[in-house]
Amino acid sequence: MSATADTRPSPRASLPARIRDLSVNQIAEIADLAREDPEVIKLWIGEGDLPTPPFVTEAAEAAMRAGQTRYTYSQGLPRLRQALADYHARHWGVAVAPDRFAVTAGGMNAIMQAIQAVIEPGEEVIIPGPHWPNLAAVVRVCGGVPVTVNLRRAADGAFSLNLADIEAAITPRTRMVAINSPSNPTGWVMPKGEMLALRDLLRARDLWLLSDEVYNHFTYGNSIAPSFLEITEPTDKLLVTNTFSKNWAMTGWRAGWIVVPEGMGETFASLCQYNTTSIPTFIQYACIAALDQGDDFIRTMVARCRESRRIFSEGLAALPGIRVQAPEGSFYLMFSQDGVTDSRALAIRLLREAKVGLAPGTAFSDEDDGKIRLCFAISPGLAEQAMARLAAFFRRG
């Protein structure tokens, strides 16, 4: 029997365009070039270098040994949702009912569920940029359309959001505005006055607000960043997403949460059920320990970041041709080199020649102005080593 050519389209070609056309995450693309290289100082991905604190891992181990390895409430253990309510009351002075919390498989899944709950195919989500690429990708996966409104930048490099730019981007198809403050990758922190103005605008236009508040503790003034929960009512169209990853060095545990409007707990219990059934029960006991015992650990994390931020901000600013602005919040900074417009090429050179792994600005924006993102959630000692390598690289030219 003679073989005949298979003329059928490839399986990939039959996928929906929103899935088929997903772009490669450029942060992961650069990281994959040297994940296993022990000589590289890895500052590309947003995680600290501290291990998960023992009181968290011990709580998980104790829960496993006690048999907490079976299915549980889709929305999260009642005790964990109460601990989340207590945490928000302690840090922001807000009373959030435990049934307004849903426990998710990390902050990524919290954002996925927020978009799943609200966005119909073809509807638009306005996102200030540069922004974390996963947010826009989730909108696309759910059939929505991400619309970037660029942050403005002052002569000194400071970022700001002009509310008129947001208002101008609203169309009949707009359904949601998504805010990440403190911001990844820019370190921008939204002032409370601007939060109030945005709240009023969205109320007037009957639009949803997604507030990703993952980095609220990572600010470098005298207080933590404000939460939209402080200035809204339980019935507002507000979804707040967060994660255990950053505050308590739990990136690999895949645990997060979402705060939903009053009366929507059952909706998100169903979304949790159909996304993940629930996150592992023993991990939820670890999360309770993080919330109840972890405030001192957060302070330690922020103090280390503050010093490493100083090392990089001052060290980069001292180099000729390097433009950098110390970020207000988060644990990232963006910098650029005069005359460089290809951030991906620069990131690859830094990886290969300086042995410092950084993320290209094109991971966060369609415009390539040569910016590079650096994660400084590391020990000051390691920051000094990385800064010395960067200084040697840029002085060589």
UniProtKB/TrEMBL annotation:
<keyword id="KW-0032">Aminotransferase</keyword>
<keyword id="KW-0663">Pyridoxal phosphate</keyword>
<dbReference type="InterPro" id="IPR015421">
    <property type="entry name" value="PyrdxlP-dep_Trfase_major"/>
</dbReference>
<dbReference type="InterPro" id="IPR050596">
    <property type="entry name" value="AspAT/PAT-like"/>
</dbReference>
<dbReference type="InterPro" id="IPR015422">
    <property type="entry name" value="PyrdxlP-dep_Trfase_small"/>
</dbReference>
<keyword id="KW-0808">Transferase</keyword>
<protein>
    <recommendedName>
        <fullName>aspartate transaminase</fullName>
        <ecNumber>2.6.1.1</ecNumber>
    </recommendedName>
</protein>
<dbReference type="Pfam" id="PF00155">
    <property type="entry name" value="Aminotran_1_2"/>
</dbReference>
<dbReference type="InterPro" id="IPR015424">
    <property type="entry name" value="PyrdxlP-dep_Trfase"/>
</dbReference>
<feature type="domain" description="Aminotransferase class I/classII large">
    <location>
        <begin position="39"/>
        <end position="390"/>
    </location>
</feature>
<dbReference type="InterPro" id="IPR004839">
    <property type="entry name" value="Aminotransferase_I/II_large"/>
</dbReference>
<dbReference type="GO" id="GO:0008483">
    <property type="term" value="F:transaminase activity"/>
</dbReference>
<comment type="similarity">
    <text>Belongs to the class-I pyridoxal-phosphate-dependent aminotransferase family.</text>
</comment>
